[in-house]
Design a protein that fits this description.
CATH class of the largest domain: Alpha Beta
Number of strands: 20
Number of domains: 2
Shape: elongated
Distance between the termini: 39 Å
CATH superfamily of the largest domain: SRCR-like domain
Keywords: Disulfide bond, Glycoprotein, Membrane, Repeat, Signal, Transmembrane, Transmembrane helix
Protein name: SRCR domain-containing protein
CATH architecture of the largest domain: Roll
Membrane topology: Single-pass membrane protein
Organism: Sinanodonta woodiana (Chinese pond mussel)
Number of helices: 3
Strand content: 35-45%
GO cellular component, one term: membrane
CATH topology of the largest domain: Mac-2 Binding Protein
Helix content: 10-25%
């Protein structure tokens, strides 16, 4: 499959969103996937593609989560466990309909697990409470793409690192060490560990800007000299309001600042 035309995957009929029967949208219809050749490595790839980047995946067969309706699909995947999508795994047959019974539908459970406090750090900042966000994943440290980062993600990271700031801030980190590891993290905001948030490794839509975080108690943002939605951007640190320099300021930074203010 070409990347833009790959079928999508979902889990259905589980008791939690991270488990269920594996279904593939093929030719605009959802079909269960036959469990021929289905194993733990295949389950790992499905979990990773759905955002369960830190999980304990389990493969199920024989319609563990109930039978799908209509014909099942077969592809007999041979995944190594590290592919970003099951459609990028080697396959014993071309994806299509066959005589597989719905009693042989494949399932998966992607139980999320915490990443761990020792695998998150704020680096290259003036003190331990602020700096470039780095996570340790796949045996390496790396940054997180800035493009879709939001306040909910920031809250989770600061809470995970035992900072109790009422309003932690995030910003674009510019520096020389910009190794990018995670393309997108999606937290609800109430998670206790960033590993319990969904994350995606695809970095194709990212720039070289990575997430920086300030978990200290003394910084707030405001607009002055205009109205509630327009004005000069200022940050407060240790009780003093400071104007943000316009050098290097662009629409991406402005978008981050606006999200910090709740827009």
């Amino acid at each position: 499959f070409e990347k833009d035309s790959q079928p999508s995957v979902r889990l259905v009929d589980g008791q939690a969103e991270y488990e269920g029967r594996v279904e593939i949208n093929f030719r605009n219809e959802w079909h269960a996937l036959c469990d021929y050749g289905w194993d733990q490595k295949d389950a790992s790839v499905v979990c990773l593609s759905l955002g369960y980047w830190v999980s304990s995946p389990t493969a199920y067969s024989n319609a563990w989560f109930g039978q799908g309706s209509g014909p099942s699909l077969n592809m007999y995947p041979y995944c190594t466990g590290n592919e970003p999508s099951i459609f990028e795994c080697a396959s014993g047959v071309a994806l299509g309909y066959n005589s597989c019974s719905n009693s042989d539908d494949a399932g998966v459970r992607c139980t999320p697990i915490p990443l761990g406090r020792n695998k998150v750090r704020l680096a290259y900042g003036p003190d331990p409470s602020k700096g470039k966000l780095e996570v340790f994943y796949n045996n390496q440290w790396g940054g997180v793409c800035m493009k879709s980062w939001n306040q909910q993600n920031t809250d989770v990271v600061c809470r995970m690192m035992s900072y109790n700031s009422a309003r932690p801030n995030y910003y674009t980190f510019h520096g020389t060490r910009m190794h990018l590891l995670i393309g997108d993290i999606q937290c609800r905001g109430n998670e206790t560990d960033i590993g319990l948030c969904k994350a995606f490794l695809d970095k194709s839509n990212c720039t070289d800007e990575v997430v920086g975080i300030d978990c200290s108690d003394g910084m707030h943002a405001r607009l002055t000299g205009g109205n509630s939605s327009m004005g000069y951007a200022q940050l407060q640190e240790n009780g003093s309001w400071k104007q943000i320099c316009s050098s290097g300021w662009n629409n991406d930074e402005a978008a981050v600042f606006c999200r910090t203010l709740g827009f």
